[in-house]
Sequence to fold (432 residues):
Amino acid sequence: MKLKHPLLVALLVLASAGAQAAGMATHAAMADFGRDALDDGPLKAILTAHRPALLAGAIHPDGGYGSGAAFPEDREMAERAHWGDFSIQFMAYLRESGCSGEVKAALVKRPAIGLIDLAALSDRCGHLIAYAFGNAAHGLTDETWDAQFEPEVRRRGEDPNPAVFLAQLPLSLPGPLKDALTQLFAATPMNAIEYAMDMVNIAERKLVLDAPTLVFPPSSELVAVFARNRPEQGVTVAMVERAQVVSRAAVQAESLAALVEQVRVRRQMPWAAANYYTAPGGVVQSGYAVAGMYRQLWDLLTGDPAQPLAPTVVGSYPGHGALDVQLDPAHDGWTQHRWLHVFFSTSMDAASLEQPGAICLFDPDGRRVAGVVEPGSWSRDYAHTVKFRLAEALKPNARYTAVVTPKVKDYRGLALEWPYSFSFTTARSSAP
Fold:
């Protein structure tokens, strides 16, 4: 019998892709929102004209996780593509390979109105630039999404494993069968929150993710970027192309699965399905953070190296003015990961973030709240995130103010130009 059920087809493809090769539509949506949030100008024009390459870049880092199931070296390639050092070297490669010069020449043709003559920019450079920006968006949104949205989903007890949905149906599953199904789904991306939200996003937002329209730049050029960043990895054309094949297959599988999976996800994860777009760490907030990072990358690509753009804060958790905030000094895996977070436009110097007085939290009386600063999300190096882990409980229904001072510096030693502050009000009850 031929296998035609969309859910089963998607399961087979995604299972072969590995547990982390999901979230394609979510990452693409965030990268695309960042493009749309930019002011009209040359950068937005380039990313819009080469949007298929932007979307391809946004899904690129996870492809190697999938091919890594058969080729372990692909996993390390995928991991390194997530981090800021890869994006920084990508910008350097674009400058040295002539794309920066092309952009500047195209800008000169329309200086009066601040636009770019896209006809003067080659498809090669247009694709590479858009792809590089999409790839960078993926890395940043992994940090914003994982730090805020996913912990909240888990705190609310919503589980993406399809076995949970099967157990809710009016049928009785034998214990051993239920356990076997739970373990089966747990080994696939169908057990991932990103995958579950992809199902809703694809069905709801109709983001163009038709795999044949995605534009990947020449593999040899991506190999050159990896070689600039981490030559010891020995990334090859074959490794890059395997990851791209998996990316296209995963996109196709997710698009097919969404036809039926969005019904299950909405019923099984009602809060997440209703809030993945606007909740902290969701598409909107992450997209605005991406726009801030895009401006920083644009300066790396086209700005004057003698007058570099200083880093900026592009987001925080809680957001400024947030109400009914629940923060807890306890930490138990994902479920209580409820600390302050600050997100920056570029990779930050971890030691500068840890300086006394670099990041402070004040109570309503102006007293410093005790806490520990922890740079990065998964890694201290080349991360855009800093966490402030509380060492004491906060008062209920009280207004707190966090301050990020110019003591913090980016990987180049550039400090914030001015302090950044945000305030929030805690919940009336400390109950989770």
